[in-house]
Amino acid sequence: MPIRFCWASRVSVNLNHRLSLGKSERIRGNMINGRPVKISKNNSRPSSVYSKFAPPELRYLIFKGFNPPPLPSPPAPPSITVPRRPSYRKSQIIVPHDRFRGVYVSKDRTSLYTKNLVPNLSNDGDVVVSVKDDDGTVNEYREWDPYRSKFAAAILCGAENIWIEPGCRVLVICSRDDEQFGITISHISDIVGPGGMVYVVDHKNGMTLADIAEKRFNIVPIICFNVPEHYRMLINMVDVLFAAPNEPGETQVAYINALYFLKTGGHYVLFVQADCIESRSRGDAVFSSMIRPKEFEFKRKQRVTLEPFDRDHAYLFGDFRTIEMVDPSCLVALKFWTAPRLYRGDREHVTIYEQLWDLPVYLLFESSCGYALLQAHDMLKVERNYLAIEEYISRFDDFFELIAYQPFKSTDEALVHLNANCKGIVYKQMLDFLVFNLPTPMEGGKHCYSLALVSGGISEDIINKTKIACQANLFHVDILRGVRMHIDKVINDIKPGDLEKAQLDLARSYCRQKLISPDEKKPKKEKRQISG
């Protein structure tokens, strides 16, 4: 009878078949490492004695008439396997990248580098190379490891343009694309250089973010939940929005932040993970959950998969609000006011939108340097689509008029104002500023004008204390976004660099306050103590 072989781990398949052997053969067949193994006639599974004394290494057992196990499945193709990082380093010649300013590459095109913004400063595991130039200056280059930062992997996998270059402003939302928090952020900081700014919004890695910002002077740390209304004073208009969401809802957060802070004609870089809602199509429908007119605001230029460095992940690169020919049928004039209707009788009623249609509109704009009051002419006659809004904003000098401006005396005063707004309370000095510079809010029981705000949290407090009709929705956010874009035309007292310095000082003060006493967690603890 032919002899067949099987794995020792498959011995439980036909143990009852071995009972047909002779006594001496059965004893030899049940010996493992010289120890007898008990076999149950009613149970084909190995006993606890077998599992206890079974050796981990490969063993063969001899059976009569037993078929061999199937062959193991072939290994995965190399296109979807993640290669191992090389264990040794070769001497490299570092040259500037031919497409991306601020990024350097080895001569064999296998490694990426960025010029270290702060000499003698590096993260754990960084490979730092010092190069002496012809003029005698020594520059440090940090290797941008694609195995630790997926953004570097996207560049090596064929990204055509990342739009992050020296001197630009970048807003980082939900940075979850690196092995250790801060790796991608530090390399973006190296690329933009001393003339650029990196605004980082995060609430899960506050201590790490604060430590990185203390060492890198071009990083503005914002330890806050992803609510743009709370940190609107800390961010200027940005050129690039970088988002690496970890949860499906964070994609909507990236969209809202783009409406607040991304300039017209700006760009976005979106990292799509496997567990995100859009990962089934590799990001083809990132904004499919939005209404159709919003899809034309985000024009996707390229999708880059990360094989062989990572699987089931991709980067999306695109433009935001490119002014070009768009099908007018897609730009629906949507009603923007959704407040409850004001009833003046049993049958007749009038909405707040209709009541304020022909009234003057004032805008309240807040920044880290102070707050300004402007008047917007013919604003309510603008159609509710982004092409009409962008055309209205482009004629800023024709439609916008500065009424008054109040600067902050110190960073502490700006911090008090920011904390009050986050709680939905109007700062006392700002309330006096509005009452002094605005006309009488009501005459004969009717409103005389309306005040447009970014934050809907303080609108109720303003209405209760001053009787001023306030409006706060995405349409007004879009209009005030135009004021943010032309802040240099609005306030002549602000010199170049003053706004960035004020934002950095205010953000660091706000960051230290959050780390010392995070007020988001206090109410929950108090409620638990009371209920217990």
Automatic annotation (TrEMBL):
The record's section on InterPro entries has:
Fibrillarin (IPR000692), NOP58/56_N (IPR012974), SAM-dependent_MTases_sf (IPR029063)
A Gene Ontology cellular component where this protein is annotated is: small-subunit processome
A molecular function (GO) term: RNA binding
A Pfam family of the record is Fibrillarin
One GO BP annotation here?
box C/D sno(s)RNA 3'-end processing
Keyword list (alphabetical) reads: Methyltransferase, RNA-binding, rRNA processing, Transferase
Q: Where is the Nucleolar protein 58/56 N-terminal domain?
A: 362-420
Q: Which Gene3D superfamilies does this entry report, sorted A to Z?
A: Phosphorylase Kinase, domain 1, Vaccinia Virus protein VP39
Family of the protein in this entry: Belongs to the methyltransferase superfamily. Fibrillarin family.
In terms of PANTHER family, this protein maps to: RRNA 2'-O-METHYLTRANSFERASE FIBRILLARIN 1-RELATED, RRNA 2-O-METHYLTRANSFERASE FIBRILLARIN
Name of the protein in its database record:
Nucleolar protein 58/56 N-terminal domain-containing protein
What organism does the record attribute this protein to?
Daucus carota subsp. sativus
